[in-house]
Design a protein that fits this description.
Order of helices and strands: HEEEEEHHEH
Distance between the termini: 53 Å
Structural class: alpha/beta
Radius of gyration: 21 Å
Strand order of the largest sheet: 3-2-1-4
Length: 160
């Protein structure tokens, strides 16, 4: 019995190491790429990404055979935007004062991921959330990392 347990454990560890060691190569074909260093728009660029690291950008980049190709040749690609004053856990609306008295932290927590996803889809890849109550921003970041953004990092710190 111990021999089988040891064998199964070793097979599991070996398969885990093999899967973690494999890189996830992606090639983004960008029709237009905003180069913020030179202040120009580059045409027909390829962005080569290995796991979460950009390894090469250029017009003549060789795309590896096993790469996942993301075709954005009809789009403009730009670096992620940064917003230092966001409210990911709520969005003020027409009934701002009514919401203050009628909504609970649970209401805000249920909708926080919707606002965070909207912000991400708008091009903001780094934000500073201000005004979150009951550590909702921390919970939202944890859920985004583990559920929605499995291959991405989400750093969160509460200074409250």
């Amino acid at each position: 019995m111990r021999k089988y347990f040891f064998l199964i454990t070793m097979l599991f560890i070996t398969s885990l190491n093999a899967s973690l060691g494999q890189s996830k190569i992606k090639a983004i074909k960008a029709g237009r790429l905003i180069d913020v260093v030179s202040g120009t728009v580059l045409l027909n660029q390829i962005i080569l990404i290995d796991s979460t690291m950009i390894v090469e950008i250029g017009g003549a980049v060789v795309i590896p055979q096993n790469a996942e190709i993301i075709d954005l040749s009809n789009a403009t690609v730009l670096p992620g935007l940064i917003d230092c004053h966001t409210h990911l856990t709520f969005q003020p609306g027409d009934n701002y004062y009514e919401d203050i008295f009628r909504k609970t932290p649970i209401d805000y927590a249920i909708l926080a991921h919707v606002y965070a996803k909207r912000t991400l889809q708008s091009g903001f890849t780094m934000v500073r959330d201000v005004g979150a109550d009951q550590l909702i921003d921390i919970s939202c970041a944890t859920q985004l990392t583990t559920v929605l953004l499995k291959d991405h990092e989400c750093w969160c710190r509460h200074l409250g």
